[in-house]
Amino acid sequence: MVMKEEFGIKPQVEHFTCMVDLFGRSGRLDDIKDFISKNKISNVASVWRSFLSSCRIHRNIEMAKWVSDKLFELEPPTAGSYILLSNTCASGDKWDDVAQVRGLMKDMGLMKHPGQSWIQLKNQVHSFVMGDRSHPEEAAIYSYLNELIQRLKEIGYSTEANIVMQDVEEEQKELLLAFHSEKLAIAYALMKTSTGSPIRIMKNLRVCTDCHSFMKCTSLLLEREIVVRDLRRFHHFKHGHCSCGDYW
């Protein structure tokens, strides 16, 4: 390997995982398989987790199943990995596969933590969960969010209903996505902060693709910088783009 031959650096797990991530970004999933085999790193769980994320991004269901099997041979199954697999199956409308994955999670007692987002305004922390109606200003928040979604649709935003892991009608899918915790947090922040000021949000889970698109469009429409720290990384939305390059 060039790193070792030219620079005297022995590749570590982080280097291998980074290469898998780079192959994944360009959609070269078969090259990831070859890279893992060539470098004899099939026993490194983090490599397979990165590979599984790439399968989700590129909606390669069969590859995702194979990768998840490899991952579960190396470490105890986690809710996060199963949800990644389930999301990948849902993106291809493979509802029988989604039900099977969810059934396995239930049998093993693996529970998905509810999504929760936090925002601090004037030294007070406001917490939101999906469909939350407990906030004192919930009526105004939902009204503002509904209006914002309609405005965003006028500039090209469309709900990514394919990520909903339920076989329901399209309109119902839109409703399930409309009130995710980070959308509620953003709506409240927009209501309570001055025009042009940045918005900062924390979330306990990975941001879904629909909320990601929502925040890109919001940053463009309202000319706001939005910074979200989710389970995986920071997302910095500005002028309709995200610092992650739509890969996370």
Automatic annotation (TrEMBL):
Q: Organism, per UniProt?
A: Daucus carota subsp. sativus (Carrot)
Q: Which family does it belong to?
A: Belongs to the PPR family. PCMP-H subfamily.
Which Pfam families does the record cross-reference, listed alphabetically? DYW_deaminase, E_motif, Eplus_motif
Which terms does the record give in the GO molecular function aspect? RNA binding; zinc ion binding
* GO BP terms: RNA modification
Q: Where is the DYW domain?
A: 156-248
Annotated signal sequence range: none
Write down the superkingdom of origin.
Eukaryota
Name this protein carries in UniProt: DYW domain-containing protein
